[in-house]
Amino acid sequence: MKTDPFKAIVDKITRGRKFLITAHMNLEGDALGSELATYILLKKLKKQAVIYNNDPTPEIYNFLPFSRVIKNNLAKEDFDVAIALDCSDSSRTGKVKDSLVKANCIINIDHHVSNTYFGDINWVEPRVGSCAQILYRLCKKFGVIDKNIALCLYTGIFTDTGNFTYASTDDQTHRIASELMKYNLHPHILYDRLHSVCTPLDLNFIGKVISTLKFDPAKKICWANIMHWQDKGYDLTEVVFSIMRLLKGVEVSILFKKIDNKRTRVNFRSRSCVDVNKIARFFGGGGHKRASGTTIDSSLEAAEKKVVSFIKKHTNSSLRRPA
Ligand SMILES: [Mn+2]
Known about the structure:
globular; inorganic pyrophosphatase (n-terminal core); Diaminopimelate Epimerase, Chain A, domain 1; binds manganese (II) ion
């Protein structure tokens, strides 16, 4: 019989003493918001807690409460409980995996359909649009929600639903967002902090990427290439995708980023019916039905050819699912 992960997690948190909190590499709003909300929850329960991530926190998230406590290095320490958030697989935590697997108990809280159930306790809800939305129930249960937790959870929900525009946004999402907004949150300020961050050079760069756009109206797919990727304090991928989404009649958007001559990062977004997790999995990656990615060991040109022809061949059959 399937046991209720929620009850088991509440129990572990109540009994546990020292907690490790982590999330996936390439941190974004849902990973960070979920980590910090969990950290504040544990601190309010008078537990020891450490947030340890593979990657540094992108600058734009420094406004999140307690973001300064996040560590990127850790001396040898043992933990009763490790909580992995927004992670489909333990290896997605990067170098943190070593500390994660050493904990007496791993709690896996996630919303990726590709989740491998790597935890001792697995609370995975692929229908939910963000990990932060799942965590709301936990924070509510412990009666700890305050302005700081509300801001962290709201940021996770806001970013992972594309500001409440992705197909995963439903009545629950809005109900929870409305509960959180009672803590004096301001979405317009949040939007500016997260999105109004481009420099004129960034917009130039985005323009160059968009100038490579190709569109197959019959197959409803569009794709663009990035030859020189620069790591910034924020991720321009989402900005480029939000522009590609403006194209009328597009279902799948793909972004090819050259890592080097032999490796290409490929990101997928779909609007409503194509399961891009399946596409990414075919190429060794994974993610969500509506957002996924993979790294292919080919040049950008070869990767583009492989991926585009695969999608053209399959989008009319097995990859399409009702919204
Ligand atoms: Mn997420």
